[in-house]
Design a protein that fits this description.
about 45 residues, 3 helices
């Protein structure tokens, strides 16, 4: 129960972070979001 709530919280925080980051990047960078996402997850 607690674990699933944590996952939802982390997911919500991550989605908010991505939205904030996208405010500062260009269209070319947004096209590479999947690659950036994979790198971020690997580091995280």
């Amino acid at each position: 129960m607690l674990q699933s709530q944590t996952v939802i919280s982390v997911r919500g925080t991550f989605l908010a972070l991505i939205q904030d980051v996208e405010l500062f990047v260009t269209d070319d960078v947004i096209e590479n979001d999947w690659v950036a996402l994979q790198r971020w997850m690997a580091v995280y």
